[in-house]
Every structure is written in C-alpha cells, then in structure tokens.
non-specific serine/threonine protein kinase
Amino acid sequence: MATPPSPSPTSPPPSLPNTTSPPAPVTNNTAPVPDSPNGTFVNLLPPPPPPPPPREGLPRGTLAGLIVGVVLGALIVLIGVGIFVIFYKRRKKKLANNYTGAPPQGVDPQHWQQSVPQIAVLSKPTPPPGITPHLYNSVEPPSTSTSLGSDKPSNPSPSPGVAMGHSLGTFTYEDLALATDNFSDSNLIGQGGFGYVHKGVLKDGKVVAIKQLKAGSGQGEREFQAEVDIISRVHHRHLVSLVGYCIVGVKRLLVYDFVPNNTLEFHLHGKEGSVMNWSTRMKIALGAAKGLAYLHEDCKPKIIHRDIKAANILLDESFEARVADFGLARYSLDTDTHVSTRVMGTFGYMAPEYASSGKLTEKSDVFSFGVVLLELITGRRPVDKTQPFFDDSIVDWARPLLSQALEHGNFDAFVDSRLQKDYDSNEMTRMVACAAACVRHSARSRPRMSQVVRALEGNMSLDDLNEGITPGHSRGFGSFESSDYSSVQYQEDMKKFRKMALESQELVSSEYSAVASEYGVNPSSSSTEGQQSTQIETSKAEKETKDVSGST
C-alpha cells in the first residue's frame, strides 16, 4: 500500500470544511491563543481587576496635631469644671459663714435678718436661781421671711439646729439639751455677759462646756460668728479648743473642750484652805503668756482677746493654763487695731488708755496680763474696796513697790505672805520685771507678749525687756512721769474709768443678781466687788472725755 506523499513544508495546510458556525466575537480584546496541536483556539478569562489603591490619609503631622487638640480641649473642659466646683463650694461656705453676718452695703442693719425655718425645740432652759425669768427666756420666734432685697443668689436656710461650715462637730439643739440634762441648774458651771455655760456629756462620752448665748442679744450673735470664724482656726495647747457649735432659730451655742480644774481666780481667791505654790504660779504665768502671744503674733490677722483676767485662765489637772473666752476676740487688721464701737472688759484689768480713747490694741491685753501677774505675785485681787482710793487698785498699789524691789532685790513688801518666802528668787525677779513692764502707763512702752514669754523663761535679759524706756525714770517701772503719759492724765483717766465702771456695774447688777466667772464654779467674791464683766461703749468714753475737758 502506497504511502501518500507528505505535504510540502511550504504548501498551505489543507482547508477544512466549514461545518460549524463562525466563532463568537471576542469582546475582551484578548487574542486567541493555541490550545492544542490540532489548531483549535479558546478564549482566556480576563485577569481580576487590580485592588483599588489605598485612600490617601491625612499627613502624619496633621493627625498628631488633631489628637493633641482633642486632648487639650478635654483638659480645658475638666479644668473649667473644677474651677466652677471650687468657686461654688467657696461661695456656699461663705454664705453659710455669713448666715447672721453684717448686712450688705446700703441695707439697714435693723432690717437685716436671714430667714430661718421655725422649729420646735425642747423646753427652754431654766434660769439659775435669782435670775429674772423674763430676761433669761426672752427668746423671740425665729423669722420666717427676709426683708433683704439682694440680687445675690438665695442661700437655703440651714437645717434646724445643725452647725455649719469648717471641720467642727455638728450638733442639734436636742443633742446639747440631752448632754446637759436639758440645761439643768446642776450642770451650770458659769455665766458671763453673753449667756450661760453648762457642763455636758456628749453621746460619745466626751465631756464639754456648752456656752449658750443670751437670746435676743445682737452683740451675742456677732460674738458667735466671730468665735466660729476665728477659733475654728486657732489651735494651741494653752488655748481652749472649740469642739463645735449649733444654730437653731435665734439660739447660738458653742461647744468647747471641758477644762476640769476650774479657774486661776478660783485657786487664788476662792479656794479656802489651800495655797498655790510658787512653781505652779510660774507655770501658769508662762502657759498663759504663750497662749496670748500666739493670739497676738502667730494668728493672721492677729487676735486681741480684750478680756484677759484670772477668771478666763482655766487650769487642767496638771495646772497647765488654757486661755478661754474668745467671744470677745475679733480680727484686727494691721491697719486698724482699734475696737470698733462697743467693747467689753473687766474693771481692774483694763488698760488706762481705754478710758480716754475707747480703743484697745494688743498692748491693752499686755496690760491686763500684767495685772494677772500681779495677782500671782501678791495674792491680791485686782480691786480691793477695803483699801483707800488708788490703793484699792492692785496696779496703783504695786507700781512703786515693784520699782523699789527691782532696784534693791527685796520683794517682801508685796509678795503673797501665804508663800512664806518659799519661792525662787531668780524666777520672782523675772516675773516682777515682766509685771512692771506690762502695766506701764504708756501702751507703746509695754513689751510684746513674745518678749514676756522669753523673759519669764529666762531667755531674755531684763535690759532687753526694758528697751526704749527713757533712762532716769526708775528704769521705766514705777515712774508716773512719762513723756507721753503724765500722772495728771493718768489720774484723770482712772477717775473717769471708775465712774464708767460703777455705772456699768449698776446696770449689770440690775440684770444679774449673781455674777460668776465664765467657767468658774463657786467664783470668788471678787466678781461682785467691782470686777463684773461690763459693756462700755465708745460713745460713753467720748462723752466723759468731753466732760472732763470742759471742766478743766
């Protein structure tokens, strides 16, 4: 069988018969590729489209700035909220502290009365025996409206009987009534110009002294606010601490630490059968001096006590002194150390310049402390009516004796005979020098209380204590002749002072049939011998000054 001839390499391939329909047109613009040796063709699927390019983001610097801006904005918002909260709390606290404060400018003080919800309280405390009931129980119903037209935000009234502000204890009137057995006479431990003091036991067993201000006394309300504002920030081992307070209607109550060992006045003048030894007297003098120096020089602004006396120096079981009764203390700005319009003091302790000017400074407290030192040295009361005129005052009697004793070193003429000369001579010299310096006629010649403390401690020479005293004037201790305060002026002031004190004594005696020390139990009779707490107005002092000047 013959083999067909192979086609020539140059000859075209044989044509195939057209037995099928023409291929579908290619729509994806791809060319056919051979798929097999027999010359057939297939269409390839197009490749998947490439992934879309990533979106172009913000530049890295812009993104960082945006984040920082958001954070700063959040911080600013937080700081703003914090400032708002702080100012809100401060304003709320200020409004609370000024609950019974002075009226805004332009408002009649007589029409200034904060609204207080009327509440039901326990029965009124029974006045001590001999006290006129209508004077003690003159409690007016609290006001339920206010006549103050102010554009300030209204301040909601405090809860009845709850103390406000500071970090003090909060007490209801019922709490304090329960602590004192409804303010019973058996718990009465003293009374003063503004009210009564009762011993009480709180629910936690703490023993306290509760000072209840006389109702209806505008001065008492101002005293209350002064004490709360000041004493809550005053802390010293030789000062009586304020535990808390209570406002309920027109009632104002202060709660103090109870100091159990009575007063210096009681131990010097009212306790029969016992004599305070010299070392105890020295310790009391130094402690009281430290407490008073703290008020004058460490408190900002300084505090003038204005009623330093033996009855306001309390003693604990160890006979450590604690100065009490800050109801008479007020702020004293450096630019104005004067008393405003009305003050309170005790005759026999008050500085002589007060009679002529009606003004008190910290140097007036120094004079009063000097009188206390004289009591410790001599055992005498500030005023002894059994003695002739001018000798009835411990200051006028002792002043020349102090000068002589310091010159000659002999103290027998005036030292308390009950000591039987049992005292340290160096300590006696220091205390006598301090007493003499404190009761100088001229206020500016008196030392500061810090100087008195150092002199009592023996850490300051007596020459430094007398700095500024003109030589040749008995070293400044006993002379009546001073360049700025003559004996004539002093005597005139003392006559005027006595007259005012006697008039005030009659006024006080008509209101109180018995006067006790602020905290003293069974006070000495000195309280009824011209030493009552007396309210003396500056207007009266000015009137007396005019009368004296007109008669000379």
